[in-house]
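User: My advisor asked me to double-check a structure prediction for IS5 family transposase before group meeting. I don't want to rely on an old file, so could you generate it fresh from this sequence?
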Amino acid sequence: MGRRSYPSDVTDEEWALVAPYLTLMREDAPQREYPLREMFNALRYVVRTGIPWRWLPNDFPPWEAVYAQAQRWLRAGVFEALVHDLRLLLRTLQGRNPHPSAVILDSRTLPSTPESGHRGGYDGAKRRRGSKVHVAVDTLGHLLALVVTPADVGDRERVGEVVREVQEVTGGRVEVAFVDQGYTGERAAEAARGEGVELVVVRLPEARRGFVLLPRRWVVERSFAWLTRFRRLVRDYERLPETLAGLHFVAFAMLLAQRLVELLGKVINSL
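Assistant: Sure, here is a fresh prediction for IS5 family transposase from the sequence you gave:
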């Protein structure tokens, strides 16, 4: 590698899993001037630390080359494909059906930055301007689908779009989506039913105030907590919503690859 390692670097075992997805062109292609693994390590460094692209350490390939390669990967959808396959493997190894029949929907608002402010909206409930990330996860907390909107777009307004993406990646196998009270209303329920999914609203117990950990709902809250480990995703630093969405899949690819390597290690050691 020719440099000291960073905590964000991909391990040999993880690289064996992800490399086939990242190889978009021959090694003698002009765009392959720098080692692909180093380009991926640089992308991981940006997502994990949150630094601007131009601030990449000098022992990585030039930031322009890393950014261009990252955009090629994002446009090709390689991280969505990687997360999809890692999720299937993890579910199978844990004795689950490869595709879930139930999901959890929720959203989180990321504050705007000068780069993303032009497309932000004001979230009155959170009292902040930014972008809203609408997600669907399975009952293990693994990402299935994601939609980025201005923060002033309500949760129920994007139910149909999120559920449609869920059904596309699961082959239409999802039957139930657990949601909070922000998704109440016939319009949201009808949008979900149009995709073959029944919305189940998990309500806050009466006479309870403040933060309450709700059954099933805690799964998606844990997924959001995982994402806070990636400093690039604590605010919306991206000019394009597609980049913000793609970097969420990069983060989950990192999480699931590490988890799969750990699980496979336990399986091998038990033989």
